[in-house]
Each structure stands twice: as structure tokens, then as C-alpha cells.
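Write out this protein's structure.
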Amino acid sequence: MSDAIQPADVEAFFTRDDGSFLFARWGRPLAPMVIGVDDATLAVVKGAFEAVATLPGQPMLAETDPELGSNCMMFFFRDWDELAAVPDLDRLIPDLAALLGRLKAADANQYRVFRFDEAGAIKAVFVFLRMDDQLAAMPAGDLALAQVAQVMLCWSEAAFRNRSPLARIGDTTILRPDVSAIIRAAHDPLLPAVATDPSHALRLFARLETPA
């Protein structure tokens, strides 16, 4: 891992806007479902899930979740009002109408809703992507990779607010080395799946790979 990243940088990835610290990883394999894309884009998103899920070094994908069927639902659409017509979505997302109103007022183009199990580990994620001009201009592979990276952990709201989780090497897009290293370190089975003490950042930092 590059010498550039420091424990404070790791801590910032999980420090919420209110100053609290929350780290959470998945407590079960991901069973993704992608809605609103054609077959070609579906294959690209599936490839992104498969690529990122290899980082922890342990099985992270499943065909179905025994409790939920799909526990990682990614919706692509053109207008927030389209979500109001999705059957039973209001049962999965409390106060859906109010949430859609806030997102429209903010002219947001993406939003993620996390659900947690009794222990606090990630149980499900709902990803909403309004394909405005900005998102539509991104190559499908880049958009998929960035979105999958953002559901692998419960990052803070600010983690990628001013800087994408992606990097470029020549003509190839990859996850930033610090992001991929944190995802890998976060799934060390010796670490807890949930932490609210900022000292957890030190434990993550100690597991970041160092260059040979």
C-alpha cells in the first residue's frame, strides 16, 4: 500500500457527517439484482460485482439470499417518479414518497439505502441511479465498478463526495488502490463486522497491503 495513506485517511472513510464513526461490512454473501438495463449492460454490472467480490478473498456472491431473495438491488431509471410505480418498493423503503421528494428537490442522481441485521452488519442495499446527463456520459463499466465499490462497505457520506473511487491506468479504469486495499482489509475474518470506535481505523490500517 502506498505510503500516502495514513490512519486518519482510513478513519475519514467511515466518519459520518455528524462526526460519528461507523464501520460495517456485509454479514452475508451478496445476491445482486439489476433492474432497468438491457442485457449488455446487465453483463457489465455483473462483471463489476464479480471483480470487486474477489477482493476479500472469500466467497461474496450468491444466487439468492435465503431471507430476502435479492439483498443488493440496483435500479437504473430516468426520473425519480418512476420508483413510485415499482410494486412493493414502499414496503422495502419506509417513507419512500418523502425520500423521493427530497431527492427530486436536491436534483440528486444517485442514492443508496443500507439495511443492517441484528448484529449491525450489512443485510441489504438498495441503489438508485437516475441516469441524468452526468451518469449517462460515464462508460457503463466505470459506472458499474464505482457503484459496486460503494456497496461493499458502509462508507461515510463524504467518502467519495469529492473524489471518485476509481483511478485510471492508461486506458484502463480500476478501483483506486487505497479503496481496494480497504475493502480487502475490512473483510479480514479476525476483524469484527461492525465497529463504532474510531480506533477500528488503526486495525484496518495495519492490514493494508504494503508494496513489495
